[in-house]
DNA sequence: ACACAAAGTTCGCGTC
DNA sequence: GACGCGAACTTTGTGT
């Protein structure tokens, strides 16, 4: 088998990989677009998107970690006399 | 209608929005995961992921590449155009 | 007066502006580097940089806006039955 | 030594760190403001700020540009090298 | 209000 | 295997 033949295998493999990635990236792009649309819709209904984003992030976050991070923040805030609420 | 009733409308709307976002985020996450898997598979086949990423980026750019090149020319035309006009 | 002479004024002006910007960008870069060093030092002393960043951000934020944003978040969280604390 | 005393050490350390960061952030803010002023001045003199921004970016890149170009060549050498080796 | 640009955050990589 | 470095993505702010 020639080098060309041998290499064409890798080249084909590479091409396949790249194309599969590109398709998935297209999918991702579509989903991101849908999400954007949803936020626009929410805004149209008078919601505060920034708050919604935070809510989504908080719900996604592991509860344990969230409370731990909050505790650390509270600790530091207290040490500096910063009134968080 | 009570305030509770009144609020529950917005609350339901909010909940619906948040849940729809979360579903889309799940979709997105799944796609991102698939992409990651692909890269891992590529790596397992001896490919250089960094190079693949650049290839993908370049191909994605190539659609807008002419526009970019054109913009670059315009840029210089403008920037140096100050000397010319 | 030739075009060249006339244009050289604008060109010189442009050059001056660009160079002044570049100097300021260098300054900025240096400051950013210093900040990074500070965070590294803090980490070396056992502090949680993420929490410190939040503290700095909170202190920088206008108190009114901060509480307003927090109130909105609380409102939404409550509507969804999300326990923040 | 009381806990309060013990903690006050860390609290003081934390306060010092935060305040040093805040000072540096102020410096940064001032520099950013100066840059903004410069752009406004440039605009007042009839220059195209968008073009200037690109010029500055390009000049900043130009130091690393050869490296980037080299990286691009290496990239293709690698990616296509699969066909060659 | 939209798009562009800047900042911060996170993730993968190379290094030690 | 942990740490710092650099790139990619997300989010925030600003100028039009």
Description:
The structure is a homotetramer of 85-residue chains. With 85 residues, chain A is mostly helical. The first copy, chain A, contains three helices and no strands. The longest helix of chain A has 42 residues. The mean pLDDT of chain A is 88. The interface between A and B is medium-sized, with 26 and 26 residues. The structure holds a DNA duplex (16 and 16 nucleotides).
Question: How is this fold's topology laid out?
Answer:
Four copies of one chain form a homotetramer.
Chain A: H1 3-44, H2 49-60, H3 63-79
Chain D binds a DNA duplex (16 and 16 nucleotides) through helix 2.
How does the major sheet of chain A shape up? none
Number of strands of chain A: 0
Number of helices of chain A: 3
> Rounded to an integer, what's the Rg of chain A over CA atoms?
24 Å
Task: Write down the overall geometry of chain A.
Answer: elongated
- Percent of residues in helices of chain A comes to over 70%
Give me the strand/helix succession of chain A: HHH
Low-confidence stretches of chain A: none
User: Mean of residue pLDDT of chain A?
Assistant: 88
Q: Beta-strand percentage of chain A?
A: under 5%
Seen as an oligomer or otherwise, the chain set is: homotetramer
Greatest interface: A-B, 26 and 26 residues
Task: Report the end-to-end length of chain A measured between terminal Cα atoms.
Answer: 73 Å
* Structural class category of chain A: mainly alpha
């Amino acid at each position: 088998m020639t080098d060309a033949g041998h290499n064409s295998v890798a080249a084909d493999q590479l091409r396949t990989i790249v194309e599969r990635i590109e398709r998935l990236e297209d999918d991702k792009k579509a989903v991101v677009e849908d999400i954007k649309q949803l936020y626009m819709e929410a805004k149209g209904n008078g919601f505060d998107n920034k708050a919604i984003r935070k809510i989504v992030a908080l719900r996604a976050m592991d509860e344990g970690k969230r409370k731990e991070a909050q505790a650390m923040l509270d600790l530091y805030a207290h040490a500096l006399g910063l009134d968080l609420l």
